[in-house]
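Escalation from tier 1.

The customer reports that the assembly of two entities below gives different structure tokens on two consecutive runs. Tier 1 could not reproduce it. I'm attaching the input and our single run for tier 2 to review.
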Amino acid sequence: MFYREAGQFKTSYSADQALLPIKQDRIGLALILVTAFVLIPMFGTSFFLSSIMIPFLVFALAAVGLNILTGFAGQLSLGTGAFMGVGAYSCYKLTTYFPDVNIIILIMASGIFSALIGVVFGLPSLRIKGLYLAITTLAAQFFLEWCFNRIGWLYNDNPSGAIEVPQRLLFGVPITGPEAIPEVRYLVILTIVAVMTLLAANVLRGRIGRSWMMIRDMDIAAELMGIRPLRAKLSAFAFSSYYCGVAGALMVFCWIGSAEVETFDINHSFLILFMVIIGGLGSLTGCFMGAAFIWVLPVLIRSVPSALGIDMLAATTEHINNIVIGCLIIFFLIVEPHGLARLWQIGKEKLRNWPYPYAN
Amino acid sequence: MEFLNSIFIAPFIDMGSAPDFLLQVVWEGFVSGVLYALIALGFVLIYKASGVFNFAQGIMVVFSALALVSIHKAGAPAWLAVILTLVIMALLAVTIERVVLRKLVNQHDAILLMATIGLTLVIKGVGELVFGGEPQSMITEELGIPTGSTVWEVFDGIVIFQHIDIAAAVIALLMVAGLGVFFSVTRIGRALRAVADDHQAALSVGISLNQIWAIVWFASGVVALVTGIMWGARSDVSFALEIIALKALAVLILGGFTSIPGAIVGGLIVGIGEKLFEVYWGPLFGGGVEAWFAYVLALIFLLFRPQGLFGERIIERV
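Tier 1 run:
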């Protein structure tokens, strides 16, 4: 009743091919953007911004990156954490070599290094498929982790082995380093994430994105129809790693402020994989839902015992958290393998027919 | 020239000049290779029978070892603790089959893999909740595993063999032989092979898939317990083992997902290879290369033989 396309006539091709052809979707997106850009920074407490919204956005961007590779191009990867690390470390090196260049440019540029590394580790995908490929991406994960640990040049031979973020200004306002206030960092991340998501949405429905999906659905058939697997697979790896790299750089520069090897270990890769699975493989909206779910759920679980007045150790809640997330993953895989995004789609479908149970 | 020399010549001169040390390194590698092979064996068992790539095998090793130690600590004698742990692993197998696998029949490989990753989280959480997260020492003596060491004088030097390592190798050998007999002679073993060959054909001749899956998960639980005991005896039992267990994945790639001899040979190649590489080439890279050697070896290997050493040829039909 409220959500339907009836009466919305398209009179030009461009209107028909718009990213959001239905008016209600456009209104909804505008509302979300207004909330995100205006209301949240105005009314959100600094805890809410820096512990919930900023991590959520960073993880959502990384999830978009992994989803491009796994959900759209069908190449399962367990090395996301390492690719984020490449972004973070190269951004750190760039800030030491080019202290005067605008930090936003450096963050965006650091993704390029990540993309290059991603292409190198994506090369085996031309011969290896499926589970075998998933395991070879572990090679990327452990090799890069070792590099972050052993190559002193990467962290400027800092004795603690960590990279620490220098302060950088944008329009005279600090956006990185300990001085930067959460509102500013939040807005910077939000802008980058919004722009990059828009870009991803358009790439995915364009020529390149459709070639990825063809490779995913059946690579031999795609090859027969004139898609070059080399180009399609490597571009998917490059694109995905670029997103992960930028997410990694944002994570260190605008969120945690310093990073060590452990920040980008295998568990980090799994965390993002869980977000993609729960959110929904092959859906951009799903990335955001999955990131919100996986990131906010532990916060909720941690607050439940204290709300009920039960005294519980932090470690215990951590274990319960593991169990709950594990169960949810299995639950989703069994009940709805396409994740939260699919549930959302079903909901929209129901809304279109409401108040009738069936269409027509 | 200097660099090439240090890669291609110097390590071999080192090896030749101290053969007793070389032997010791190879032996150490052999032993850790046996342990990798044992974990890989658990993977192969499940993959053969159900096509599920069981990511949770590593955590099952930790879980079973922790259960054993904790039950013993609670006052049960060692033999009872082993039996109780086996009961727990059987219950776990049945639960996994009932709750997870039965619902996911016919799903895509990747979905099953992710389900086992979820399973890993659950088992890990339960394990930490029940047994605590601290490392525990294995009840080596109570289980009757020898702990001494033998010194072998050879090449004007000595090579030390820990008895526990010898025991690990012997037990692994016995277990592989036992599994071989089980697969080829017993009724259940043949049913397992039938299921591995073709699910539907096996169903049509009256083999119960659900039963077979529970059995095979239990079998890999037993393998996990043995691995956990042997590994725990060498170091402590802790959740850190889980990361090391991931190396078994590289072993699998070398050996092929479906081959038991492949798992053994792959385990030995990875174990010996990474020790040699760490000792003789590691200093060139600044040490710690053990962390990635196995995976990079597997990656390079896959480029030439995508199905592994002994794996079945992958034939794709369009």
